[in-house]
Amino acid sequence: MSGTTCGASEPGCVWKAGVSIRYDITSRHAFWWEQHFPRWEMHTFRVFQRFVRPGAVVLDAGGWIGSTALWLAERARKVVVLEPGDRAFEELLLHVAQNPTRRSRLSLLRAALGPKRGLVQMTNRGDSADQVGVFDRQEGILSSVFGINDLLYAFPELEDVSFIKIDVEGSERDIIPAMTDFLRRKRPVMLLSIHPHALMDDELSKLIGELRALCPQLYSFHWNMSRWWLRDFQFTYRQIVAMPEVADPADDALCTWEPLPADALQVDDE
């Protein structure tokens, strides 16, 4: 277990997968942190517990309001966080300020990860479903995009990256092919969220083919007997026309370079 334990009835503090995380109680998502975060995406944090070693260098693409980065920064030496949305990024800063001992281990960039440096339109609602490359007449913004080589120049620590989390609401279709050479060279464990609602059928098929060609071992997640298990990746090809209301691990993919046992995520309970 890590971090200063939350005090009894302490406002603005939650316990998640062995780590205490503090959040700004005046923020837009304060209720979400209190009521939903403790049980949110439990498979994701099982992966973190298994693969993010003390002293690791991590890339968190799609940082949103810090829901993964603040946990990662308790264990890792450096976490490079990309969040392109203005509203989400401003809230991310609020929550980071509540965790001052982790600030030096966080490098925060208000930008999207993409195939190359540039600018792109995106939505700016501040929720977890903001999308790059989507025009929003009412709340849209223009965001910076960094390619992986741009990130390496800005953050040389990424030469030692050992874990990558990508959750980018459909932009994975552009990111994975652009990062293939880097991933093969560095061989980090990669947790990728795939978003069928944001991709065309041919884009999905192409992405799955690229993942299978890239990853020597590709796994998906299975909940059974009150535990998370790994199994060979089998994309469901479900028909999803809108973002699910709750996080769904059915199409998440874990890319590794060595085979893993099915019970690899069986770690000590919180």
From TrEMBL:
For the Methyltransferase FkbM domain, which residue ranges apply?
145-198
Q: Which InterPro entries match?
A: FkbM_mtfrase, SAM-dependent_MTase, SAM-dependent_MTases_sf
Top-level division of the source organism's lineage? Eukaryota
User: What is the protein's name according to its record?
Assistant: Methyltransferase FkbM domain-containing protein
What organism is this sequence from? Durusdinium trenchii
